[in-house]
Each structure stands twice: as C-alpha cells, then as structure tokens.
Amino acid sequence: MRVLVVSDTHRDRWALQKAILAQPKAEVVVHLGDGEQEALEAKRSFPEKQFYMVRGNCDWGSGLHAHMMVELAGKKLFLTHGYAENVKAGVDEVIRAAQERGADILLFGHTHEALTDYVDGLYIMNPGSLHGGEGTYGFVDITPAGVVTNIVRLR
Description:
metal ion binding; 36% strand; hydrolase activity; Purple Acid Phosphatase, chain A, domain 2; alpha/beta; 5-stranded mixed β-sheet; Calcineurin-like_PHP_lpxH; EC 3.1.4.-; metal-binding
C-alpha cells in the first residue's frame, strides 16, 4: 500500500493536486495540517482515494483533530501536525508521543523541513512543506516485506 504524505500546503491547491497526480499508486492521502481547505477540496476531487487529515496551527476554526491514530496494512500510524509537540525545538517529544501510542510510523509536519528517520522500531517522516514551486512531499510504502519512506521534490 502506498500512502501519500503532505503537509503545510498553505492554500497551494495546485501543488497538492500535482502531488496527488504524481503518485497514482497512492491509495491513501494524509494531510498533516496547515491546509485544511485545499485538503477538503482534494478529497472531493479524488473520491477514489482515502483521506486522513489533522489540524495544523494555521487551520483556524478547524473541527479536525490535532492527533490521529490510523491503522493501514497492519501498521499503526500516529498523525500530528507537530506544533503541540514542539517539533520546532526537536523531535524527542513527538517520538515519545508516538511510542506511547504504540505507533509503528510517525508522520508530522510544521517545520517545513523534510525528514525521514528510523528510531527504536519507529519509522519517522516529516514530508516538509508542499507550498511553493520547490515544495516537498513524501510517500510511505507498506508491504509484507516492510516499510519504506521517501521524500520527493515537487517539479
């Protein structure tokens, strides 16, 4: 299963649509906040895809949850924007939050800096910011052979 992971689109509808179209194998789209409106539009435009969204610090008045646990292809994913876990000061708090929830995969945004890592059995990804011409996104492949995380520059 391929999961497209995006964050911090900040009203860049074009970039979000381009990322979704660039990953036709992705069955699931995860939006990690700061772009609720364009994420909801994309959900309507791509009804064949499953969408999961969390609230970012710039999603004012949002009814979305700040955190979410999702199980996909037998793996537990912890989704958060990251502002509540102070990710701009480091990743220790968000890693701890994911581990406390029994997550296999941690997905967060907020810093606008792409990151993939693996710490104590936890796959970690921040897809960076999709906003602008040089934005980034990520995808996670979950297969019987394991998990692979990738960061892609939007072109």
